[in-house]
Design brief:
InterPro entries: YvrJ (IPR024419). It comes from Halobacillus litoralis. The protein is an all-alpha fold. It has 1 helix and no strands. The mean pLDDT is 89.
Length: 48
């Protein structure tokens, strides 16, 4: 039975969560931008 190299374990344990976090942050950033625009439009329409 061969063992998994240390660098492979490190990549799996650290690299994968970093990739997932970056992916989620970029997705949520787009949603937050669209929500900010909607709130600003609502605010300007309430002033009128």
């Amino acid at each position: 039975m061969s063992e998994i190299p240390e660098w492979a374990m490190l990549t799996g344990n650290v690299g994968f969560p970093i990739v997932v976090a970056i992916y989620l942050l970029t997705r949520f950033e787009k949603r937050i931008d669209s929500l900010t625009k909607a709130i600003l439009q609502l605010k300007s329409s309430m002033k009128s």
